[in-house]
Amino acid sequence: MIDELARIPPHNIEAERSLLGSILIDKEAMIKIADQVDVDDFYKKSHEHIFESMRELYAKNEPVDVLTLGNKLEEKKLIEGVGGRSYLVGLSNAVPTASHILQYAKIIKKKSTLRKLLAAAEHINKLGYKEDVDEVETVLDDAMQHLYGITQKHLKQNFVPINTILHNAFERMDELHKERGKLRGVPSGFTKLDELMAGFQKSDLVILAARPAVGKTSLALDFARNAAIRGKAKVGIFSLEMSKEQLVDRLLCAEAGVDLWKMRTGNLSDRPDSNDFPKIGHAMGLLSEAKIFIDDNAGQNVLQIRTKARRLQAEHGLDMIIIDYLQLMNTTGNRSSDNRVQEVAEMSRGLKLLARELNVPVLCLSQLSRAVEQTKPAIPKLSHLRDSGSIEQDADIVMFIYRKAADRNYQLEEIPPDERSLGEIHVAKHRNGPTGVIKVFFDAARASYKNLDTQFETGAPPPPPPNQKPPSF
Fold first, then answer.
1. 3-state SS assignment for residue 2
2. Confidence (pTM)
3. Over the stretch 394-429, which tens digit does the pLDDT of each residue have?
4. How many CB atoms are closer than 10 A to CB 279?
5. What mean pLDDT comes out for the span 389-395?
6. PANTHER family, alphabetically (predicted)?
7. Could you say which of 19, 158, 321, 432 is the most buried, measured as most Cβ atoms within 10 Å of its Cβ?
8. Is 86 exposed, middle or buried (0-12, 13-18, 19+ CB in 10 A)?
């Protein structure tokens, strides 16, 4: 029986020699693989030293040949350790042509990845035997980071010729033309908002922000419900604040049109004129068929959310992610920092990378700073995003919710009765389209927003009068 501990790690010395030899005989070879192979991808230590010296010469725009490489290794007192100049000559004679260097690089990278996986497995194995572990989450974080570091290197994409991109763009436009009127993205269920954004787009990071008690979670759940039931989308919800039972209560009441408080207190009516139970039964049928997946573990970080989202995508498919909310997330690796702005910047950047990696829209809820309440009306601005300016920078879309009835600057009697249930969705940033204000109806009893048949005002300037030039920007 083979001793497991005596196994030699995966490697291919001939591929390493052939790659190094190709660089020595072809000055263009290094350009082809400089971003494909790293120094630590080589199994043989002497090959590491040789490749590192080659890269140093290449970085200085100096020729890489037997003579210059030998001199470089001599300067670093490594020439004897790699086998002397005769070994370098042997490398240059190892291959007749450098045309296969990309294949050599792939072999080396594959073997390196397998070795790193084995090293990560060994590290994780040791973690499992540690006695002085306070929190098992710390161990899980450590383990995931090791695997995350390996997989990240395989997410990088090389340059793509513009003709390929143009071909894909034309096919996409042709498909959209044939299906005019059909949303390009995941539907929000709000007619005017979908007209403004064309739905939630793949790889977009969307921030939905408001002060407490304005209805961030309610609107996010309306998006999820409409997308899953009406749009047949698969939606993953990470709730860091509310339990899954609370979320389901809200989803059920909003879909059924039943008073949330009555349902929670058991005061539902069975009178024929109210039909609470039939409504709930119908809503349960719709929601049970909807592809909504809820994770209510508190205090998760981007790495944990990423791991779970990837698994969900692999097992069930995934069209949209909702996270409630940003400021309740932990930093990756359970690291604490005195600089909250830096922590939030790390998290917002991680969420944007998550959206790009999984190629789905990520809707993340966020708090606003108290500074917004110092103005009347307290309509949010991008500068009011709490804890970090990087949220605005990383986000493709930033939306704010404003309701005069929730504005602390107004007494209820100051607000006309017909305006007390009105709300506004302010699209303050839209990287690939217009900004605007969408008026909506807020049903407080059912904790739900609904369409309001009013026109939105785009953030673009109005068209100029006839014979007048438009303003320049």
1. coil
2. 0.65
3. 889 999 998 888 888 778 888 888 888 889 999 999
4. 17
5. 80
6. REPLICATIVE DNA HELICASE, REPLICATIVE DNA HELICASE DNAB
7. 19
8. exposed
Burial string for 449-460 (b: 16+ CB within 10 Å, else e) reads bbebeeebeebe
pLDDT at 342: 79
Q: Which residue has the tokens 């309701």?
A: 403
CB-based contacts of 152, cutoff 8 Å, min separation 6: none
Alpha-carbon distance of 26 to 104, in angstroms, equals 15
Residue 429's beta-bridge partner residues?
398
Rounded to whole angstroms, what are the CA distances from 399 to 250, 369, 427, 435, 444?
A: 22, 15, 4, 9, 20
Q: Which helix (H) or strand (E) holds 102?
A: helix 101-128
Characterize 400-429 residue by residue with b for buried, 16 or more Cβ atoms within 10 angstroms of its Cβ, and e for exposed.
Answer: bbbbbebbeebeeeebeeeeebbbbbbbbb
Tokens 């994780």: give the residue. 124
List the one residue out of 70, 67, 72 whose CA is nearest residue 84. 70
